[in-house]
């Protein structure tokens, strides 16, 4: 075996062996296909970051420590080493192209929008969320003092339409590995297929004024049967639903003292 | 009053060490009037440096309050409104009033003319105007604290429509807009001045590819300023019209497009990141060769890397907007990822410069190495953010806060490298090395302790700009560590102030060329006389001062493997 | 004369053009397109202007020649003002403009007066010392 091949093997083998046992590098595993792929992309980026960043860090340390001043002789005044410079131009370009290719693949998965089985219209407002289930006569509204819960079914495509009724907000569910701005006058759509039931925290990420820090919601993923039951139990009359869906932020907030109440639920 | 500057033939002077102290004394106003009327780039440079460092300290003080609030999840040290004002003013002061002006108008103002052998900036009066506009902007920004209703509270990016007259009433936001307009024009004038000075006032023999890297970076920075700042200023004018003249440019009601603000802001904002960074790249590119006793490794590669960064920075603005769902993801992703390449080249060139050198651990050099390491961390984490799927779950979380603080704290560390390096040139006295090193270790370690928990917190889901956060023990621990880091940074600032006092009480004379350095500024006296030079050495490389004192040690060119090649290879 | 300088600017303009074209035909987004046109102009306008002067004069300045000696650059560099109060006056005027934007239109009175004074003062000053 040539030494070059041995070197290649030495680099690749641990990666292959480690396989799915790579550490999480801090990220969530994701509860959708897109989220899981984002997580794996995260791991991939982290491995490369660790190798490249760690290697460069060691090089910096080595250069600074090994070549510390030992006397008054003037070192060779080397200024160029063209082959070396070419290498550290080309290699990063190749790495970057690889990272980009992986990015595009995952991005397409995350943004894919197959035909939905359920739809939720999300409106963010100062400072809360409104989840409207079109055709089901169900509307969930909540703000700082009463965080709303968005209930969604597991295992089917759930489409979300996201918009804001006032300033820019951010729709963010850490467990989903996903966030999207809620913007006035700009409708955003995305589709999830949840592969895990449970309750996950969600919150506003984009500064939206005074009570931005209190703008939470819960995402509750349930089985499709539970989902239907929940819809039935919470259905309003069409007139009530229409009125609730049309309610403005001012009306929702009116009468409810918006005060710095601490949302106290753990994460993880 | 006008001075006619003549350049004399004094090339063959070999009176080492005494280059022109005998300049006739300057008659003119004195005292306050002297300060108000000075158009000397050195005075203006000092004004800028001092003002912006004061802003660094003010912004840092606000940051300490922010970190104190975050010590516990439900702290009530400040109110929700005050918290929003605090981080808005912290970010705005740091970016608009410290980092930029310090970088492209402080030391640059002082050093660029010296490095190219010029008597002053090309437009001295415009230069003075730049400073006064900047000072006016600074006063406007700080006045916000005294405004009824408090200062602006919509974040340093001021996303529309949170900035509208309805959502952000009062004079605080208007003062913020006014401050940005003034500093914006000031920046544009500085940019014009830098480019014109570098194009027109170089010493004989100082071809473009013999300019010190710092000057090169300032040229590119100047061009980027001219590219970016007009867009910001235009956006601010539009915003002001929305607020006061009933237009609806950024408001949906009336047919406006809020996202236009984001496009315009970031079309300025991303180049601005390089406007902030390139000068500090330049500073450490002066420091590292000097304290490695070697020429800048890959000088030309360095120049092209700078130009590539600037060029690419035209096409990356919307990587701050990935989560809007309204931008061309792949385009901005690949452009942003590509910037990593020239940035990497720079880091490797710095390593290459130290390689087989004589690395001397002066305070300045420690800061420079600390800069490279901290910047490496910020750069690597930036690569994640250039990938839209990864940005989706880190955007607007503490991951981003940690990422850009790795970058901006690297800039602060780089600024210190510059101050310790050039301080002796400016004042004639060295700063105290012991205090300098204490400052370095507190600043460097504090920075890492401050930023690292942020990466973790962001991934766990802690959004930024949160006055209170979910009550989760592990989050609190991480936040507490972050605050400890911030305190260390605060202590390092105290060491800096102590150092200034100590060095002022017990001056350590520096002489003209204390570091046995490279570029032309070290050829003149410390501080340089009015209009800078009485004599110039021949310029035959980017290290004229080194060549003058070490004619037997020129840089080795591309193919040179024998030393003693006196001829410098210069490309055209 | 400014040959390399013009090349840098032109290259910058061309690069902005490439980015702009890709962005325009791929993204169909107006605001970025317009701003990139601005970037193209920023590169090309001064770049071509310098190039034009380089072609016309053809000469090389001492700072363009690798072998130039200090003697080649001997003579008058330029006239530099050593002091002037007018930048301060103009800057104060602009500061009052901003205060007028914030606190009320009447502040334009001191603002405009200062700016006007500065214009007159600076012009007169240049006339007096006016050697270039
Ligand atoms: C003493 C060192 C520093 C500390 C402890 C510190 C701390 C912080 C913290 C905790 C935040 C986040 C506030 C929040 O999102 O709730 C923040 C935001 C920010 N910091 Fe710093 N910072 C420091 C230095 C700097 C420097 C040197 C710069 C720039 C040159 C800077 C620029 C910013 C900006 C732009 C923001 C964003 C403000 C916003 O969200 O609108 N910081 N800082
Ligand atoms: Cu919000
Ligand atoms: Cu919010």
Write structural notes for this entry.
Chain A has 268 residues and is α+β, with helices and mostly antiparallel strands. Chain A folds into two domains: 110 residues, Helix Hairpins; 136 residues, Cupredoxins -  blue copper proteins (Immunoglobulin-like). Chain A is 39% helix and 24% strand. The C terminus of chain A is likely disordered. The longest helix of chain B has 36 residues. In chain B, strands 2-3 form a two-stranded antiparallel sheet. Chain B is globular, with a radius of gyration of 24 Å. In chain B, helix 2 runs parallel beside helix 4. Chain B is an all-alpha fold and 572 residues long. Helix content of chain B is 62%, strand content 2%. The chains are: A alpha+beta (268), B mainly alpha (572), C mainly alpha (132). The site of one copper (II) ion (CU) has 7 residues of chain A, from loops. The site of one copper (II) ion has 7 residues of chain A, from loops.
The major β-sheet of chain C equals: none
Strand percentage of chain A, roughly? 15-25%
Low-confidence stretches of chain C: none
CATH H level, superfamily name of the largest domain in chain A: Cupredoxins -  blue copper proteins
Summarize the structure.
The complex is a heterotrimer of chains A (about 270), B (about 575) and C (about 130). Chain A is an alpha+beta fold.
Layout: helices, strands, pairs:
The complex is a heterotrimer of chains A (268), B (572) and C (132).
Chain A: H1 3-18, H2 33-66, H3 82-111, E1 118-125, E2 128-133, E3 138-143, E4 149-153, E5 157-164, E6 169-173, E7 178-182, E8 188-193, E9 198-204, E10 216-222, H4 224-234, H5 238-246, H6 249-253
Parallel strand pairs in A: 1-5, 4-10
Antiparallel strand pairs in A: 1-2, 2-3, 5-8, 6-7, 6-9, 9-10
Chain B: E1 2-7, H1 31-37, H2 41-69, H3 80-115, H4 124-143, H5 171-200, H6 213-244, H7 258-292, H8 299-312, H9 329-354, H10 363-385, H11 388-392, H12 398-427, E2 429-430, H13 433-460, H14 473-505, E3 508-509, H15 544-549
Antiparallel strand pairs in B: 2-3
Helix pairs in contact in B: 2-3, 2-4, 2-14, 3-4, 3-5, 3-6, 3-7, 3-12, 4-5, 5-6, 6-7, 6-8, 7-9, 7-10, 7-12, 8-9, 9-10, 10-12, 10-13, 12-13, 13-14
Chain C: H1 3-27, H2 30-57, E1 75-81, H3 86-103, H4 108-129
Helix pairs in contact in C: 1-2, 3-4
The structure holds protoporphyrin IX containing FE (HEM) and copper (II) ion (CU) (2 copies).
One copper (II) ion (CU) is lined by residues 169, 204, 206-208, 212, 215 of chain A.
């Amino acid at each position: 075996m040539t030494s070059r091949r041995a070197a290649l093997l030495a680099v690749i083998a641990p990666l292959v062996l480690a396989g799915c046992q790579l550490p999480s590098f801090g990220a969530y595993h994701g509860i959708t296909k897109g989220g899981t792929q984002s997580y794996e992309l995260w791991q991939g980026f982290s491995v490369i970051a660790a190798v490249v960043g760690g290697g460069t860090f060691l090089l910096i340390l080595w250069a600074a420590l090994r070549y510390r001043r030992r006397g008054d002789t003037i070192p060779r005044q080397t200024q160029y080493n063209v082959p070396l410079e070419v290498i550290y131009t080309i290699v990063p370009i190749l790495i970057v192209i690889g990272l980009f290719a992986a990015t595009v693949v995952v991005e397409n998965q995350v943004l894919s929008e197959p035909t939905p089985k359920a739809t939720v219209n999300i409106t963010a407002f100062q400072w809360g969320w409104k989840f409207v289930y079109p055709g089901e006569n169900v509307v969930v509204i909540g703000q700082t003092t009463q965080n709303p819960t968005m209930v969604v079914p597991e295992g089917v495509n759930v489409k979300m339409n996201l918009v804001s009724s006032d300033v820019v907000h951010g729709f963010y569910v850490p467990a989903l590995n996903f966030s999207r701005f809620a913007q006035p006058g700009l409708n955003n759509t995305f589709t999830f297929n949840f592969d895990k039931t449970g309750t996950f925290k969600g919150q506003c990420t984009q500064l939206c004024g005074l009570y931005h820090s209190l703008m939470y919601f819960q995402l509750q993923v349930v089985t499709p049967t539970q989902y239907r039951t929940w819809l039935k139990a919470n259905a309003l009359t069409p007139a009530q639903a229409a009125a609730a869906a049309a309610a403005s932020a001012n009306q929702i907030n009116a009468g409810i003292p918006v005060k710095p109440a601490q949302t106290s639920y753990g994460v993880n | 009053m006008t001075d006619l500057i003549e350049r004399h033939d004094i090339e063959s002077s070999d009176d080492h060490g005494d280059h022109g102290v005998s300049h006739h004394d300057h008659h003119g106003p004195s005292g306050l009037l002297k300060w108000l009327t000075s158009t000397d780039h050195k005075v203006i440079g000092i004004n800028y440096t001092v003002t912006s460092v004061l802003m660094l300290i003010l912004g840092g003080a606000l940051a300490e309050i922010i970190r104190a609030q975050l010590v516990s999840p439900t702290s009530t040290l400040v109110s929700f409104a005050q918290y929003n004002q605090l981080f808005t003013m912290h970010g705005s002061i740091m970016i608009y009033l410290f980092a930029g002006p310090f970088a492209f108008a402080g030391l640059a103002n002082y050093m660029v003319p010296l490095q190219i052998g010029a008597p002053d900036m090309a437009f001295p009066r415009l230069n003075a105007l730049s400073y006064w506009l900047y000072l006016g902007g600074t006063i406007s920004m700080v006045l916000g604290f005294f405004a009824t209703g408090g200062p602006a509270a919509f974040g340093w990016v001021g996303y529309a429509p949170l900035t509208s007259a309805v959502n952000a009433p009062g004079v605080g936001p208007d003062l913020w807009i006014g401050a940005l307009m003034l500093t914006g024009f000031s920046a544009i004038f500085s940019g014009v001045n830098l480019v014109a000075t570098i194009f027109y006032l170089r010493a004989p023999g100082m071809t473009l590819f013999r300019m010190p890297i710092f000057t090169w970076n300032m040229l590119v920075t100047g061009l980027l300023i001219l590219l970016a700042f007009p867009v910001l200023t235009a956006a601010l004018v539009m915003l002001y019209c929305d607020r006061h003249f009933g237009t609806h440019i950024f408001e949906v009601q009336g047919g406006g497009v809020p996202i236009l603000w984001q496009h315009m802001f970031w079309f300025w904002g991303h180049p601005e990141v390089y406007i902030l960074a390139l000068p500090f790249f330049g500073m450490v590119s002066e420091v590292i060769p000097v304290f490695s006793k070697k020429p800048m490794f890959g000088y030309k590669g360095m120049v092209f890397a700078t130009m590539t960064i600037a060029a690419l920075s035209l096409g990356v603005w919307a990587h701050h907007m990935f989560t809007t769902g309204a931008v061309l993801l792949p385009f901005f992703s690949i452009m942003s990822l590509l910037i990593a390449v020239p940035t990497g080249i720079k880091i490797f060139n710095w390593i290459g410069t130290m390689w087989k050198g004589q690395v001397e651990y002066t305070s300045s050099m420690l800061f420079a190495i600390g800069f490279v390491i901290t910047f490496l961390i910020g750069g690597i984490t930036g690569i994640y953010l250039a990938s839209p799927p990864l940005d989706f779950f880190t955007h607007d979380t503490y991951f981003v806060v940690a990422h850009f603080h790795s970058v901006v704290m690297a800039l602060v560390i780089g600024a210190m490298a510059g101050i310790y390096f050039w301080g002796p040139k400016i004042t004639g006295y060295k700063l105290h090395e012991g205090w300098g090193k204490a400052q370095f270790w507190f600043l460097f370690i504090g920075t890492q302790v401050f930023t690292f928990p942020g990466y973790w917190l962001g991934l766990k889901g802690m959004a930024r700009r949160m006055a209170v956060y979910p009550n989760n023990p592990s989050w609190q621990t991480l936040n507490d560590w972050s605050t400890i880091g911030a305190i260390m940074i605060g202590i390092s600032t105290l060491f800096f102030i102590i150092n200034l006092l100590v060095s002022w009480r017990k001056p350590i004379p520096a002489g003209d060329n204390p570091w046995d350095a490279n570029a032309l500024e070290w050829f003149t006296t410390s501080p340089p006389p009015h209009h800078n030079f009485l004599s110039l050495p021949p310029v035959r490389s980017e290290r004229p001062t080194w060549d003058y004192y070490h004619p037997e040690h020129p840089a080795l060119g591309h193919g040179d493997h024998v030393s003693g090649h006196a001829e410098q290879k210069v490309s055209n | 004369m400014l040959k390399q300088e013009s090349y840098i600017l032109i290259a910058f303009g061309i690069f902005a053009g490439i980015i702009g074209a890709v962005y325009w035909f791929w993204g169909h987004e107006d605001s970025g397109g317009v701003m990139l046109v601005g970037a193209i102009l920023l590169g090309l306008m001064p770049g071509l202007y310098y190039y034009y002067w380089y072609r016309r004069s053809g000469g090389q300045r001492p700072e363009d020649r690798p072998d130039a000696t200090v003697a080649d650059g001997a003579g008058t560099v330029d006239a530099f003002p050593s002091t002037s109060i007018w930048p301060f006056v103009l800057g104060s005027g602009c500061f009052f403009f901003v205060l007028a934007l914030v606190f009320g239109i009447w502040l334009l009175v001191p603002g405009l007066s200062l700016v006007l004074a500065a214009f007159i003062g600076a012009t007169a000053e240049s006339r007096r010392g006016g050697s270039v």
